[in-house]
Amino acid sequence: MNSFDNVSVVKKANVYFGGKVTSRAVLFPNGEKKTLGIMMPGEYEFGTEDKEIMEIMAGELDVMLPGGENWITVKGGQSFEVAANSKFKLVVKELADYCCSYIK
């Protein structure tokens, strides 16, 4: 899916790590929420309450999933899932354009 129809976008940006990671929330009529954002190269750790599906539309990063022992490389066109109530680490190698879906 390259676009979302009939949605609301929260104008205020979510800004993390001194502006190196930003996103905007997209709200769907059925209550679904996604964020669209950009991550600059760097190392980050995120926590999540809901299960997340992180789609990387462009760029490249390595992810260490909860309980994982090895870094997984993810490139544009690929995605990964993160369990609810967990933390995961990222090493962004080149600017990453992403879409994150939150699963309740």
Please explain how this structure is put together:
- It holds the Pfam family Ppnp.
- One of its GO terms (molecular function) is purine-nucleoside phosphorylase activity.
- This is Pyrimidine/purine nucleoside phosphorylase.
- InterPro entries: Ppnp, RmlC-like_jellyroll, RmlC_Cupin_sf.
- Keywords: Glycosyltransferase, Transferase.
- Strands 1, 2, 3, 4, 5, 6, 7, 8 and 9 form a 9-stranded antiparallel sheet that branches.
- The protein has one domain (8-103): Jelly Rolls (Sandwich).
- The protein has 104 residues and is mainly beta.
- It has strands at residues 8-9, 14-16, 21-27, 33-39, 42-48, 51-64, 72-75, 78-82, 86-103.
- The relative contact order is 0.27.
- It contains no helices and 9 strands.
- The protein is globular and about 40 Å long.
